[in-house]
Amino acid sequence: TGTCRMKTGTSRMKTGTRRMKTGTSRMKNGTSRMKTGTRRMNWNLKNKLELEE
């Protein structure tokens, strides 16, 4: 039973690490999207100001 438990534990650990990796990658994608969004917002604001002048 000990070896079986060890195997299930290791498999669980592997799935956990995989989930962590996917989570971090998703976080990175989210931050990059946020950055691009803010850049676009600033760009639009600049264009609006230039047009108004």
UniProtKB/TrEMBL annotation:
Source organism superkingdom: Eukaryota
Region (Disordered): 1-34
Upper classification of the organism: Eukaryota, Metazoa, Spiralia, Lophotrochozoa, Mollusca
Protein name as annotated: Uncharacterized protein
Ranges of compositional bias, category Polar residues: 1-14, 22-34
Organism from which the protein derives: Lottia gigantea (Giant owl limpet)
